[in-house]
Amino acid sequence: MDRRNDGKRDANGGLAEATASRLKFEDPDEEAEEVGMEVEENSAAKEEGEEVIGSDKTSADYYFDSYSHFGIHEEMLKDVVRTRSYQNVITQNSFLFKDKIVLDVGAGTGILSLFCAKAGAKHVYAIECSQMADMAKEIVKTNGFSDVITVIKGKVEEIELPVQKVDVIISEWMGYFLLFENMLNTVLYARDKWLADGGVVLPDKASLHLTAIEDAEYKEDKIEFWNNVYGFDMRCIKQQAMMEPLVDTVDANQIVTNCQLLKTMDISKMTPGDASFTVPFKLVAERNDYIHALVAYFNVSFTKCHKMMGFSTGPRSKATHWKQTVLYLKDVITICEGETLTGSMTVTPNKKNPRDIDINLKYSLNGHRCQVSRTQHYKMR
């Protein structure tokens, strides 16, 4: 939707508060050079409203079916922050890949595998469960890397590799709100099964952050709309709309409070259970304003490089396809400069579908003009 994106974002403006470790994030190269491989559209399928590779879907699992569509890969490849960051990490740190065996988890079109092969990897095993694996094999062959890259079609948890151990595991596993789609557990499974002692997981750090915004105009359009729909009361839908986090691009000038680090994940050491957590937050108002929503975003870090590299998906950084995650509040909070909105956030995978996320938010303010205490529940589906 990008209804807030005015194209005037400061590429580094949001990074100071984004990390407690003084990590300097590299802004990806913004040259006009093409990123990745161009995938030709299946015009016949497009005419029918379907952009699925081949005639049959790959699985009953919608998650993998969705990654059989060209469009989602086009969006990711055209995300210069995402793709150029990975390219820079690989090409500028060839010592991590030279003569090494690499595992690419969730390879998609194979773009990361191609970067690794070009950086001198001894061999790359690219695992992809969707039908995009068939295209990845063709892309690898077309670009002359069939002797270096082996594309394996299947679920990581169900396949066997021709080797016992790998030196590097690389993956672009992050979803909206960092954890939506929960591909992280697949990376951890691969790490525990195949990563050699002293091996490297890339990226190796990820962090989730929170801030608060004023958003009266869009909340009115998105939520309050249901109060009166052509003269009819549809507020029952409003309650459901409030529970669905909005993935969208937030304008930096909407930010009312400081940005707080909620959770840091060390991918090389964490366990799957660490993706469920309850963390406190304390957001301090930087001006007198209203708060209509909380906004979550994440940062990704590659700390094993010559110099630390990474990128942010925050509202003060260059926009990515992940955008930010907006959690609308039932209350319109009036907050004064220096006052503190406190609370806690609980994040858990949904019990019925672990790729979905349940979020429980508690917040309170005891301010000069506003006193509020509430608990809200959200479901990312």
How would you sum up this structure, described in words?
Helix content is 20%, strand content 31%. Helix 6 links the parallel strand 2 and strand 3 (149-153). It is elongated, with a radius of gyration of 22 Å. Strands 6, 7, 8, 10, 11 and 12 form a six-stranded antiparallel β-sheet that branches. It has a five-stranded parallel β-sheet with strand order 3-2-1-4-5, with helices on both faces. It is α/β, with parallel strands linked by helices.
Element layout with pairings:
Layout: H1 43-47, H2 62-66, H3 70-78, H4 80-91, E1 101-105, H5 111-118, E2 123-128, H6 132-142, E3 149-153, E4 166-171, H7 184-194, E5 195-202, E6 205-213, H8 216-222, H9 235-243, E7 246-248, E8 260-266, E9 277-284, E10 289-302, E11 309-312, E12 324-335, E13 340-349, E14 357-366, E15 371-380
Parallel strand pairs: 1-2, 1-4, 2-3, 4-5
Antiparallel strand pairs: 6-8, 6-10, 7-12, 9-13, 10-11, 10-12, 13-14, 14-15
Helix pairs in contact: 4-5
Protein traits:
alpha/beta, five-stranded parallel β-sheet, six-stranded antiparallel β-sheet, 9 helices, disordered N terminus
How would you concisely characterize the structure shown here?
Helices cover 20% and strands 31% of the residues.
